[in-house]
Amino acid sequence: MKGFIVSLRPAKNEDLIVTLLEEQALQSYYRFYGARHSILQLGYLIDYESEEESRFMPRLRRVSHLGFPWLYRRNRLMLWQQFIGLFEPHLRDAQTLDPFYFNLLLDASRRWEKQNPKRIICEAAHRLLHFEGRLHPPANCYICEKPLGEEIALMTALLPAHPQCIYGPALLRKKIESFFETGKTAWLEENEVEYLYQLVLKGL
Predict the structure, then answer these.
(1) Degrees (nearest 5) of the Cα angle 70, 111, 200?
(2) pTM of the model
(3) Average pLDDT of adjacent 10-residue blocks, the chain of 204 residues
């Protein structure tokens, strides 16, 4: 089995509860302190076996780390951990998952080495919102419901609004429309990507 570590929580006696985003589920496992913990870090993709425990939760056994070349680049690792930490709260109530979420992370992890991670995060957020039917084209303000002008602002989950309605920075509508239509950040300046990235960090 394979999964991305999206959450690590301490348990009694320095044991760990490890939450993994698998291909079709978000599943928590118990990891005993006697087992080696160093291989378990937020964001790692691991291969493992599950040992069922009827009284509590499945145990995590025979873990091996499936590494990426960028893991030893501190800045890229920190950005990856920020990004992947968004998935556990977003998916925690789901009983089963579409493979989309696992594949989204797998695709992002393969692009992380050579592309700008913040642009990858913004584009991945766009894909996720589109997949979930939550991507709202910038036509009307989410707050006052009136038509938007040539400049717009964005809220959490990339909801469009008038800058004055949310006291937010103004962006050119045509640029955001291009991003919403294509899912690509190629036409956005670095400061615009930073703005979108900060919004994504507030939650999916």
Answers:
(1) 95
(2) 0.92
(3) 93 86 94 67 93 78 90 94 96 91 97 97 98 95 96 96 95 96 95 96 94
